[in-house]
């Protein structure tokens, strides 16, 4: 790092001195287009002409960008390329890869019952999270918006964020504990209110586990989404709201006719984020049930992991990854398009 | 006439209900939101209660607060188990944060202030990474790390974290740098400042705020990451980050439930402390994550 800094000082410092000499010609163009080639330095006009000159002019910038680009290339672009590439192979670390065409994708939908099960599960989770990420934050944001005392508002905003800074792993483990069959809070609560027959091993029953998992996190208030929606509400011009009040609109009418259309951008943002996060969900499943019992709570992301590291089918795992990627892409584009039209 | 009016309005506004009732009719959302927030905190309160229990107290009454409190036993016991991994997490978060800020701000500055061949293309290519889900690259990134010989070293965490964190950093900081009036830089250049000094002495000090947002995003992301360290650190206990340690030790500590809960609280404390000092940046950092479209 120190080396890079001294190199930069030398390089840029030298250029600055060179540029000072040619200041008078440089100024007009620099004023018109502020970012334009301050670095052009010695003989800038000649350097800007022709491909070679432009490449030479660009080189120092790329030298500064190099650490960023190199890191992204090695740890992001190359892996992304590998994922797509390997999805057409049967392959494991240290073994030669065999080209299988689209067999991995065909197998996913025709022979892999766990994968099909995982699709159903992720469907359930996604629908719920979409609701949880849009409707509930809107309701809670309206509640906070209706609070008249600024001091309470301030503390409520902080209260919304506090649960969000508890590490996910802690929340997942606590919920695993709440669902526990023998000492769990949920069963204790049901017993206390006389519903003892409802108690069960919530995460141990293959028919119930996916629902228990999906509905963990009561009261399902996503603080971050709430704040995003609240920010939208606070940006609404106060005069519009006042005049609606003068015209005798009820609170519900105002919310339905004014607030929702005006914070639609925020709601859409929350929706798209929910789609992206829930389709690739797997950490919560891994921590709470590891996909069980008997794979009843499997989701595609976790199934990818098991195929890659437990069953040594890296090619197949990559194919699942590509499927998830394409699904997210399509759903995101679709939801953005649908809601754009609806709004117009 | 006027006295009648005043009496009338006093009747409408005042007499019919006592003051306290009128107050809560006006402020009804306050208790509702309060109850919600308490419910949201229930898991953490539970952890706090249970961390105070001895084994016998837990068997007798697992959920309420019981006396005497045994914090003085559970917390030191939990600390002995998780201290190393807390330290590791602090190192990973801090170093990757510094890396992201340093390289990210340099790149953002170059993108914001200069024009050169291929700039826009490269910028769009970098931003396109925001569209690629982490799950797609999980396996091949592991392969790359393995091939580079980084498996079970701290670098397996630091390098990918620094690389990935820069996408958001470049995006946020470039937007900020563009908004700085170019006159600042021009006059500095006329006074003979080098381009690096413009970056170091003008752009960076002005961007403290946005840099804080980037830093918080990075700390949150790395502190909470479960799976990547679980994969790349494997069985090497002395390199565990805090989520991995909690996951692994959870089963070992199953019998000492109080200690286990104390461990959860210890794992959450650093972020809560950070939040206490930078709550505004935290809010912005979390909602800036929402820009990730």
From TrEMBL, chain B:
Q: Which residues cross the membrane?
A: 28-52, 86-110, 122-143, 155-177, 198-220, 261-283
Q: How does it sit in the membrane?
A: Multi-pass membrane protein
One GO cellular component assignment for this chain's record is: plasma membrane
- List the PANTHER family hit by this protein, alphabetically: ABC TRANSPORTER PERMEASE PROTEIN MG189-RELATED (PTHR43744:SF12), ABC TRANSPORTER PERMEASE PROTEIN MG189-RELATED-RELATED (PTHR43744)
Subcellular location per UniProt equals: Cell membrane
The reply on keyword Nucleotide-binding is no
The record's keywords, sorted A to Z, are: Cell membrane, Membrane, Transmembrane, Transmembrane helix, Transport
Q: List, for all copies, the residue spans of the domain called ABC transmembrane type-1.
A: 86-278
Write down the Pfam families for this protein, in alphabetical order: BPD_transp_1
Q: Which Gene3D superfamilies match?
A: MetI-like
Which lineage is the organism of this entry classified under, starting from the top rank? Bacteria, Bacillati, Chloroflexota, Caldilineae, Caldilineales
- Which PROSITE patterns does UniProt cross-reference here? ABC_TM1 (PS50928)
The name of this protein is: Carbohydrate ABC transporter permease
Q: Name one GO biological process term.
A: transmembrane transport
């Amino acid at each position: 790092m120190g080396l890079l800094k001294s190199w930069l000082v030398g390089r840029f410092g030298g250029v600055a001195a060179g540029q000072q000499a040619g200041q008078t010609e440089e100024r007009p163009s620099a004023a018109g287009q502020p970012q334009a080639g301050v670095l052009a330095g010695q003989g800038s006009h000649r350097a800007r002409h022709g491909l070679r000159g432009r490449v030479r002019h660009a080189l120092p910038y790329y030298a500064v960008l190099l650490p960023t680009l190199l890191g992204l290339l090695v740890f992001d672009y190359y892996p992304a390329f590998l994922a797509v590439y390997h999805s057409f192979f049967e392959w494991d670390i240290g073994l030669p890869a065999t080209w299988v065409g689209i067999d991995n994708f065909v197998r996913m939908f025709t022979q892999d019952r766990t994968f099909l099960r995982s699709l159903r599960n992720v469907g359930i989770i996604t629908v719920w999270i979409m609701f949880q990420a849009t409707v509930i934050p809107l309701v809670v944001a309206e509640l906070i918006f209706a609070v008249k005392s600024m001091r309470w508002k301030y503390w409520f905003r902080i209260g919304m964020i506090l649960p969000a800074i508890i590490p996910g792993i802690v929340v997942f483990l606590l919920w695993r504990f709440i669902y526990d069959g023998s000492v769990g809070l949920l069963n204790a609560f049901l017993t206390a209110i006389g519903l003892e027959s409802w108690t069960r091993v919530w995460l141990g029953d293959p028919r119930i586990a996916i629902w228990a998992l999906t509905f963990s996190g009561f009261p399902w208030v996503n603080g971050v989404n709430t704040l995003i929606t609240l920010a939208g509400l606070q940006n609404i011009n106060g005069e519009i709201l006042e005049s609606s009040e003068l015209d005798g609109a009820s609170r519900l009418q105002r919310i339905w006719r004014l607030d929702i259309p005006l914070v639609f951008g925020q709601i859409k943002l929350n929706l798209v984020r929910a789609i992206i996060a829930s389709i690739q969900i797997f950490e919560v499943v891994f921590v709470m049930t590891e996909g069980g019992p008997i794979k009843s709570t499997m989701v595609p992301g976790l199934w990818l992991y098991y195929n890659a590291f437990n069953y040594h089918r890296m090619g197949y795992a990559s194919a699942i990854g590509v499927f998830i990627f394409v699904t997210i892409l399509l759903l995101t584009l679709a939801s953005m398009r649908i809601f754009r039209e609806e709004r117009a | 006439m006027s006295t009648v009016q005043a009496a009338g309005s006093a009747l409408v506004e005042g007499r019919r209900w006592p003051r306290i009732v009128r107050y809560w009719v006006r402020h009804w959302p306050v208790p509702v939101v309060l109850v919600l927030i308490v419910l949201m905190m229930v898991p953490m309160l539970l952890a706090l209660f249970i961390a105070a229990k001895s084994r016998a107290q837990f068997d007798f009454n697992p959920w309420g607060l019981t006396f005497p409190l045994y914090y003085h036993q559970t917390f030191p016991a939990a600390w002995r188990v998780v201290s190393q991994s807390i330290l590791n997490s602090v190192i990973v978060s801090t170093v990757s944060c510094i890396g992201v800020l340093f390289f990210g701000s340099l790149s953002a500055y170059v993108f914001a202030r200069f024009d050169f061949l291929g700039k826009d293309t490269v910028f769009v290519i970098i931003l396109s990474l925001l569209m690629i889900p982490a799950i797609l690259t999980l396996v091949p990134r592991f392969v790359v790390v393995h091939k580079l010989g980084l498996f079970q070293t701290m670098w397996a965490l630091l390098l990918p974290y620094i690389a990935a964190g820069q996408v958001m950093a470049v995006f946020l900081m470039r937007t900020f740098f563009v908004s700085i009036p170019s006159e600042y830089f021009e006059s500095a250049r006329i006074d003979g400042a080098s381009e690096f000094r413009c970056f170091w002495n003008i752009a960076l000090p002005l961007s403290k705020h946005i840099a804080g947002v980037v830093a918080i995003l990075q700390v949150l992301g790395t502190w909470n990451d479960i799976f990547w360290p679980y994969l790349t650190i494997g069985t090497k206990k002395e390199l565990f980050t805090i989520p991995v340690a909690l996951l692994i030790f959870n089963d070992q500590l199953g019998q000492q439930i109080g200690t286990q809960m104390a461990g959860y609280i210890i794992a959450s404390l650093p972020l809560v402390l950070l939040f206490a000092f930078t709550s505004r940046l935290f809010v912005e950092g979390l909602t800036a994550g929402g820009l990730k479209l």
